[in-house]
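In these records, each integer encodes one residue's backbone shape. Here is one protein:

___
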Amino acid sequence: MSGTMVLVRHGQSEWNKLNLFTGWRDPDLTEQGIREAEQGAAALKEYGISFDIAFTSVLQRAQKTCRIILEGIGQPDLETIRDQALNERNYGDLAGLNKDDARAKWGEEQVHIWRRSYDVPPPGDEGESLKDTGARVWPYYMTEILPRVLRGEKVLVAAHGNSLRALVMILDRLTPDEITRLNLATGVPMVYRLNADSTVASKEVLGDMSGAH
């Protein structure tokens, strides 16, 4: 058996609360988001895991979630690597727009396609589909994160709904159709234990998934 990797989606952000497309924009956590991160920390503390290293994105909502978790489990000084490869998908021209306003402008079906399809990017030159997001997440995972797990290290990855969905897609061997229906709850740790060949030996979700959105 190799090491363990824990994936956690950041707690609610100010723009989540306002129903805005966020992407690479950088709002802070809300009070609820802080509580969600604290609940994730409590679940990991009860689980009894400590980490060798942490990874997060360059966006503060993921970094703060990571910091709250590490403080909550008594590892506030753990080495933490930040990289934009783990950023949320770039929502292009949708970033900053209210989701309801976007539906009024482009229609429910089109906005749903932008949000949930696998390979249709939102409008704008920088807009990323989930497939595009995976194209930067997967190589980073393979070169920077996975080798540590295979060496037996325990690794925390605090990131975003779509960057983590891209990872879960390959870990859980989901099809493009299956991944479009997957939502990850905020602040809920997913504990993966990997085999020596990098396949998943076990997966545990620590906490209530009813808050997924």
In short: The first helix runs from residue 14 to 17. The mean pLDDT is 94.
